[in-house]
Each structure stands twice: as structure tokens, then as C-alpha cells.
UniProtKB/TrEMBL annotation:
Residues 177-234 are annotated as: Disordered. Pfam families: Dus (PF01207). InterPro entries: Aldolase_TIM, DUS-like_FMN-bd. Coiled coil: none annotated. PANTHER family: TRNA-DIHYDROURIDINE SYNTHASE (PTHR11082), TRNA-DIHYDROURIDINE(16_17) SYNTHASE [NAD(P)(+)]-LIKE (PTHR11082:SF5). The lineage of its organism: Eukaryota, Metazoa, Chordata, Craniata, Vertebrata. Keywords: NAD, NADP. Residues 1-142 form the DUS-like FMN-binding domain. It comes from the Eukaryota. It comes from Atlantisia rogersi (Inaccessible Island rail). Residues 177-197 have a biased composition (Basic and acidic residues). The keyword Nucleus does not apply. This is DUS1L synthase. The keyword NAD applies.
Length: 246
């Protein structure tokens, strides 16, 4: 009944998301008769209008941009703590797992947490909703103090369009940009966002991710050696594991 097109390849995910292709979304829109929604590159309200104009889609979705600025579709950039406090009020009224709350605040406070690294660590370790509220309050106080001490004519740092305490998008670098940042070529297959694959392959518990360490605790015999994983025949068309209807 309705199709949403993400506008990225299967390799463009996580830290390698990069820019979505509106041209491909437009091609899908022209090829089908059902309503099409676009997703990708939506960081502010003007992007919504531009996307509809360029692709001809019936509607627009936003994930990353909306998580960093929940007021995106209102066309404004509020103070981060306004959105964070409103969100925490909702959570207190309608409880949810603490990991969800933490994840939302990491998005909202993303740019500020690059400045106050200690509070970033506290937010990551806190075990209660009250503790999260306390960290949120401390972030607000730090920002308000920074605003009070701000010099006239001072501009945002780190190339941000607004000061870090204002809701704004975080634009992930694409594969090309990330390779340049790491001093590697575009074809360097060893580049990975968080941890080199070879660091995990030997099964050393000290080098495994936290998630894999937890799995190892539950099942001591579990191995993460890629050479022991079952091999699947690949489909000639898409490169995914081959199934009966390929």
C-alpha cells in the first residue's frame, strides 16, 4: 500500500551512512503506482520541502535528524534541555527501559557530550532514571554557565551551525570522508568505525566488544572466529545468501 525508500546502499549503515541518493528515490517514485515516502538527508524543515520537490514523493520520514532535533518538523531549533526535559517528563509518565532513555539523551545532547566528556561517561554508567535526570540537570547547568560567560560576537566551534546547546543535526561522514579522516584510501578494507575486525577475531576477551563479552559469559564455549562460521552460497544478483527462490 505504501513504500518508504531509504535511499542508501546496504553498505551505507552505522558510521558509514553518508548521504542518501534522492535520484534513486525519484526513480522508484516514477516506477511504481503506490504512494512513496522518502527517508534520508532530512536534517531541517527546508530539507523536507526540497526532498518533496526533487523526488515527487508523497511524504517524508526522518530518523537521525528527528532524534537530534525533535522539533524538526516544526521548523525550529530549541534549546536541548527543553526537549530533554519534555522527553523525561513523558518517560516518568510512561516508563520504558532505561537503555531507551539513555539512547535518546545521547542523541539530544550529542554535541554537548563532546565538550563534557566526564558527563558523557556518567550518562553511560548511570543505573536509574533519577540518575539520568541528575546528569541531564548538570548538563543544563553547564550550558547555562557557558552562556552566561559567553563573549560578545563568539561563534560556534567545531564548524557547527549553532552552539552545542541548541538542537541541530549530526551529519555522519560517508565512507570517502571517513577514509580521508583516518588517512586511508577509499579502497582500504581495514577501515571500520569502532574497532578493527582483526582485534576481535582471535577471541581475546579483552579485545571483544561488551556485547560479545556478555555472550561469552552466557556461553563460555562460544567462538567469534569468522573462519568457523558456516559459509553460504551467494546470490549472483544481489550478493546476499542464496535461497530457493533466487
Amino acid at each position: 500500500q505504501l513504500l518508504t525508500v531509504h535511499g542508501r546502499t546496504k553498505e551505507q549503515k552505522g558510521p558509514l551512512a553518508g548521504v542518501a541518493s534522492w535520484e534513486h528515490i525519484q526513480a522508484v517514485r516514477k516506477a511504481v503506482s503506490i504512494p512513496v515516502f522518502a527517508n534520508g538527508n532530512i536534517q531541517c524543515l527546508s530539507d523536507v520541502e526540497e526532498c518533496i520537490r526533487k523526488t515527487g514523493v508523497h511524504g517524508v520520514m526522518s530518523a537521525e535528524g528527528n532524534l537530534h532535533n525533535p522539533a524538526l518538523f516544526e521548523g525550529r531549533n530549541p534549546l536541548v534541555w527543553e526537549m530533554a526535559e519534555e522527553y523525561l517528563e513523558i518517560v516518568q509518565k510512561y516508563p520504558c527501559p532505561l537503555s531507551y532513555v539513555r539512547a535518546h539523551l545521547f542523541k539530544l545532547w550529542h554535541h554537548t557530550l563532546q565538550v563534557y566528556q566526564q558527563l558523557r561517561e556518567e550518562l553511560a554508567k548511570v543505573k536509574t532514571l533519577e540518575g539520568i535526570v541528575d546528569v541531564n540537570r548538570e548538563l543544563k547547568l553547564r550550558c547555562q554557565e557557558e552562556i552566561a560567560n559567553q563573549k560578545e560576537g563568539e561563534k560556534p566551534k567545531e564548524g557547527l551551525p549553532f552552539f552545542h546547546w541548541i538542537c541541530q543535526p549530526y551529519i555522519r561522514p560517508g565512507p570517502k570522508e571517513r577514509c580521508k579522516e583516518n588517512g586511508a584510501s577509499e579502497t582500504d578494507k581495514g577501515v571500520r568505525g569502532k574497532r578493527a575486525l582483526e582485534e576481535e577475531e582471535d577471541g581475546n576477551p579483552e579485545l571483544l566488544s561488551k556485547n560479545k563479552q556478555k555472550k561469552k559469559l552466557r556461553n563460555p564455549n562460544k567462538t567469534f572466529d569468522p573462519s568457523l562460521k558456516p559459509k553460504y552460497a551467494k546470490c549472483d544478483q544481489c550478493g546476499n545468501p542464496k535461497v530457493s527462490w533466487c
